[in-house]
Write a structure and sequence with these properties.
The complex is a heterodimer of chains A (324) and B (710). By secondary structure, chain A is an alpha+beta fold. In chain A, the strands form 2 sheets. In chain A, strands 1, 2, 3, 4, 5, 6, 7, 8 and 9 form a 9-stranded mixed beta sheet that branches. Chain A has a two-stranded antiparallel ribbon with strand order 10-11. In chain A, helix 5 runs parallel beside helix 7 and helix 6 runs antiparallel to helix 7. The longest helix of chain A has 28 residues. Chain A is globular. Chain B folds into 5 domains: 151 residues, Alpha-Beta Plaits (2-Layer Sandwich), CATH 3.30.70; 55 residues, no CATH class; 119 residues, no CATH class; 205 residues, Hypothetical protein af1432 (Orthogonal Bundle); 140 residues, Isoleucyl-tRNA Synthetase, Domain 1 (Orthogonal Bundle), CATH 1.10.730. Helices cover 50% and strands 14% of the residues of chain B. The chains are: A alpha+beta (324), B alpha+beta (710).
């Protein structure tokens, strides 16, 4: 492989995002926009979770604001946030040179692999709520985890055939490293003709207030009702079936659960049962989505990719995800 | 016969470091087994393993399989030829199946008659044609916990495979393995090597990879390079690196071209408990901690990079940055955690589940407290300290640091108890409760810690058995094997007379009550737990399980305990492992005595006789019925040694008891030489049987000698 020359380091948070977007757009990814609902990670975007289901090829890259209410620290901790950004890449089938493509993206961020110690350290991924698991690594840059790299094996209880490859960059961490700052709030977001704006300028107050909401003020009784309501609604939509609206109800139930967890309103035993309930919804959605694509004849299988053979007739039915 | 070297290399994306060494061993073993199974002779097997490759080099592999001698029996002559002597269909079919003609077949005479017979030689195939299948077979048999798929292929392996080298001498063995075409091109270091590297012969593999590819392929050699490099770098700083085997293996499995790099952290972090620093560096960052001549940690660590960096200072700065962030986090938790006492956290253990059916950690701590109290007299511990330690033992599960470093549970509890002003005995016991954590680990030192460690393990064993989840095969989610070995080591090495059935009963009673309580509180709609075995069955299962572990413990020892010896003692079902051990030692000593074999033989004979006529034994000895001098002599000798044997048994001096019993050998031998036990007269017979039964009983007080060879 011809090794790309390291580019200049992105100076600001938004330059970092631009660089990653430009890089992955150049590799053929659809630059979709963030999912407009509360999610815990980039994986929950339909561009990853649902596109991992079934035989159709797919490739996308996007920024995803992600919420983990329990990680809030009222803006006091220099690296922990209850809302942060992931940059997500999802390509199916995972290309043979996926690792090299990823390493190319580091070069695009000015990180020379002959200078920095870049390592792939085993870290297998499992999401109990999504009924999903995969094998892969965390990527270390001089001992610091900067990305997660996963080959999905199952999603929503369905075997992934073909396999989707997923890369998740922790944008804040990467930016802190690139800008050599000790606190996420000191990360420069932009520095232009209208002045310099930091991550703290944009989000510090949000961390303080949302932490207070997550830990102290979220209405537990109301959230419990919401969870039940979203669960019921999801199940109802799955009967129709309307996979995508059902999925959004599942996301809402999942977020309600995360808030309840932050409020410590759920005992450990109950926790398991809630996780199981969300997983049941996720499985139902994955199966409904698979069927809906099947009814449409898996349209993306018909699309020709330059340099890649056209799919054989009937390939989708023969090699597609098998219902577990 | 001509031979060639064989090289197989599977080039992968980064393999899991913790299983790399085991995978590599298994691959080499399986490949050797495949070759042997196919009748292909070979020489030395060398193995190589790095994050991106598993390789095996087999020296002097035969170019052909061994010829196979064939010998097949055909139909009987009666069925092989018709009345006119012409071959039947059966005969021609047999000949065809042997690839020959009826005329060329031989005859063989056996007990059942004469048969057609074929002898021949199947010439071995060329090894080259078999290798692809043999390598595939070896790969299929690797012990991989989770195989994965990638892309749109159907190949499965530990991680995606990119290239396969299959070289037999100078020749590439054509084929496809794990979805990849075989070839003679390998790849070097991910970053430092340029382009692929053609291999001309298997033997030059490692040298070529190292020179051209910046890869030290040999695991052991690379491990030594890591160790030596780390030690030398620490020495440059006037200090000594702590190089544990586990971390050394893991680091070796993470690099192809190891380059140690020293980093610093602020001295203020040295105020953290040593275990926290070590856990941060070792477990989270895979770095080696460093200590000074005084054995105290110094603010230094050694990371091992996988690259000869163009700017090592950048690698150093990056690692320091991460270590600093991690240690700040740990320091934050360490400060936070000490703001609330362990005692104040205890109530919250009610919402932390130990196991769904066995209830919360709060419930567990109550059960452990009761058991620890029962064990206090045994270990010489103070009652109230035992109860206090047990009550606080699990509270550190709710602290921030244990949340970040689960491996420090117990250890942190000890620190926090001390900070809370708990008595030293209580704090030390909390820190020691999980000992021994692994084979060869230290045992709890203090009496309270010993009682707590035993109580915690016995409660877990009893509880998990009570809900029918005893370990099976490789499934042991509650680590009962380790817990059981811990109980055994503590009682044997600390010489504690642990009454296993009594304590098991106590533990089962407490666990049973909590299981009932959990069942009563089961939320509507939750699935009911599986049915539970009754307490007596569980107690027997636990006894058997514990003593089976003890058996493994002895049999893995230096070989001076045999299965027969173990069973001879187990037959007596001693209630304490220590008593078991004393009997076993006495038996070992007894067996080294010249009379042992004869007495074991006599015991076997007695056991056989009594088994056949158990109901015909006289209830008591009638000296008037003793007619022959040899039976009178045995009765007298028995009467003479019995009181001494019994008093020694009472004092558990099994060596002396067996020694005294050994003096009976001449009397026993003479008895069997001259006395006919199964006499005509039923009364005489019953009397003689009684004599033997008494003799047997005395031996049985120590062990069942009839189980020994003799």
């Amino acid at each position: 492989m011809a090794r790309p020359r390291p580019a200049d380091r992105p100076r600001t948070f938004q330059d970092l995002i631009f660089a990653l977007q430009r890089y992955w757009a150049g590799r053929g990814c659809v630059l979709v926009q963030p999912y407009d609902m509360e999610v815990g990670a980039g994986t929950f975007h339909t561009a990853t979770f649902l596109r991992a289901v079934g035989p159709e090829p797919w490739s996308a890259a996007y920024v995803q604001p992600s919420r983990r209410p329990t990680d809030g620290r009222y803006g006091d901790n220099p690296f922990r946030l209850q809302r942060y950004y992931q940059f997500q890449v999802a390509i199916k089938p995972s290309p043979p040179d996926f690792v090299d493509l990823y390493l190319g993206s580091l070069a695009a961020l000015g990180l020379d692999p002959l200078t920095h110690d870049v390592r792939l350290v085993e870290d297998n991924w499992e999401s109990p709520t999504l009924g999903a698991w995969g094998l892969g690594w965390e990527i270390w840059l001089n001992g610091m985890e900067i990305s997660q790299f996963t080959y999905f094996q199952q999603v929503g209880g369905l075997d992934c055939r073909p396999v989707m490859g997923e890369i998740t960059y922790g944008l804040e961490r990467l930016a802190m490293y690139l800008q050599d700052v000790e606190s996420v709030f000191d990360v420069v977001w932009t520095d232009g003709p209208l002045g310099r704006t930091t991550y703290g300028d944009v989000y510090h107050q949000n961390e303080v207030e949302q932490s207070a909401y997550n830990f102290e003020h979220a209405d537990v009784a109301e959230l419990l009702l919401e969870f039940e309501a979203h669960e019921r609604e999801c199940a109802r939509l799955l009967v129709i079936p309307l996979a995508l609206p059902a999925y959004e109800r599942m996301l809402e139930a999942s977020h309600a659960f995360n808030l309840l967890d932050a409020r410590r309103a759920i005992s450990v035993t109950e926790r398991q049962r809630y996780i199981l309930r969300v997983r049941t919804l996720a499985r139902g959605v994955a199966q409904a989505y698979y069927r809906s694509r099947e009814v449409l004849g898996f349209p993306l299988l018909q699309r020709l990719v330059p340099g890649v053979d056209p799919p054989l007739p009937g390939r989708g039915a023969a090699t597609g995800a098998r219902l577990a | 016969m001509s031979v060639r070297d064989l090289l197989v290399e599977i080039g992968c994306e980064e393999l899991p470091p913790k299983s790399l060494a085991a995978l590599s061993r298994a691959f080499a073993d399986q490949l050797a087994a495949s070759l042997a199974g196919a009748g292909i002779r070979h020489g030395r097997v060398e193995r190589f393993a790095t994050p991106r490759r598993l390789a095996v080099l087999v020296r002097r592999v035969a170019e052909r399989q061994l010829d196979e001698e064939l010998s097949r029996r055909g139909p009987p002559l009666g069925a092989a030829f018709g009345p006119g002597g012409e071959p039947t269909r059966a005969a021609t079919a047999f000949a065809e199946s042997c690839g020959t003609t009826v005329a060329a077949l031989g005859r063989v005479r056996e007990a059942k008659g004469e048969f057609l017979h074929y002898t021949g030689v199947r010439p071995g195939a060329a090894t080259l044609t078999l290798l692809e299948g043999l390598v595939r077979g070896a790969l299929d048999r690797l012990p991989v916990a989770k195989r994965m798929r990638w892309g749109s292929g159907s190949a499965e392996f530990v991680r995606p495979v990119h290239w396969v080298v299959l070289l037999f001498g100078h020749e590439v063995v054509p084929g496809r393995i794990v979805g990849v075409a075989t070839g003679n091109r390998t790849h070097g270091h991910r970053f430092m090597s340029r382009g692929d590297i053609a291999l001309r012969s298997p033997g030059s593999y490692a040298a070529r990879l190292e020179r051209r590819g910046f890869v030290v392929a040999d695991f052991a050699r690379r491990s030594e390079r890591v160790r030596a490099g780390v030690v030398a770098l620490a020495a440059e700083h006037g200090a000594e690196a702590i190089v544990g085997d586990l971390l050394l293996d893991e680091v070796t499995a993470l690099v192809e071209w190891p380059v140690p790099i020293a980093g610093r952290f602020e001295s203020r972090f040295l105020d953290l408990p040593r275990e926290v620093l070590v856990a941060t560096l070792q477990h989270h960052q895979r770095c080696f901690p460093v200590e000074g001549a005084d054995g105290k940690l110094v603010p230094l660590f050694i990371a091992v990079a996988n690259i000869d960096s163009r700017a090592p200072a950048e690698v150093q700065a990056g690692n320091e940055r991460v270590v600093r962030a991690r240690l700040s986090d740990a320091a934050f938790f360490w400060d936070q955690d000490r703001r609330e006492t362990l005692a104040a956290r205890r109530e919250r253990l009610r919402s932390v589940t130990f196991q769904a059916q066995l209830g919360s950690y709060f419930a567990k701590s109550e059960r452990v407290a009761r058991l620890a109290l029962a064990l206090a007299p045994l270990t010489g511990a103070d009652d109230s300290a035992c109860v206090r330690a047990a009550e606080l033992a699990k509270c550190d599960l709710l602290t921030g640091l244990v949340g970040e470093f689960p491996e420090l549970q117990g250890t942190m509890g000890g620190y926090y108890a001390r900070a809370d002003g708990e008595p030293e005995a209580v704090a030390a016991a909390i820190a020691e409760q999980y000992l021994p954590r692994f084979a060869g680990d230290a045992l709890p030192a203090g009496p309270v810690g010993t009682a707590l460690a035993l109580a915690d393990k016995l409660d877990t064993i009893a509880g998990i058995f009570a809900i029918g989840q005893k370990p099976s095969g490789t499934k042991d989610p509650f680590a009962l094997r380790r817990a059981t070995l811990g109980v055994l080591r503590i009682t044997l090495e600390r010489r504690l007379e642990l009454d296993l059935p009594a304590l098991t009963a106590l533990a089962l009673q407490a666990a049973g009550a909590d299981i009932d309580a959990a069942e009563a509180a089961r939320p509507a709609g939750a699935p009911p737990p599986p049915p539970r075995p009754d307490a007596a069955t569980v107690a027997a299962e636990i006894y058997d399980y514990v003593f089976e572990r003890l058996r493994a413990h002895y049999l893995e020892g230096n070989g001076d305990v045999t299965v027969e010896m173990f069973d001879a003692v187990l037959d007596r079902r001693p209630s304490s492992p220590l008593d078991f051990d004393a009997r076993l030692r006495a038996l070992r000593e007894f067996l080294s005595m010249p009379d042992a074999a004869a007495l074991a033989g006599a015991n076997k004979r007695i056991a056989n006789i009594l088994r056949k006529s158990a109901d015909a034994v006289a209830p008591c000895l009638d000296t008037g019925l003793l007619t022959l001098p040899e039976e009178r002599a045995l009765a007298a000798a028995l009467a003479a040694v019995a009181p001494g044997v019994e008093s020694r048994l009472a004092g558990r001096d099994y060596v002396a008891a067996l020694g005294a019993l050994a003096t009976l050998r001449p009397a026993v031998d003479a008895f069997f030489d001259h006395v006919m036990v199964m006499a005509e007269d039923p009364a005489v017979r019953a009397n003689r049987l009684h004599l033997l039964a008494r003799l047997q009983r005395l031996f049985l007080e120590v062990a069942d000698l009839s189980r020994l060879p003799g």
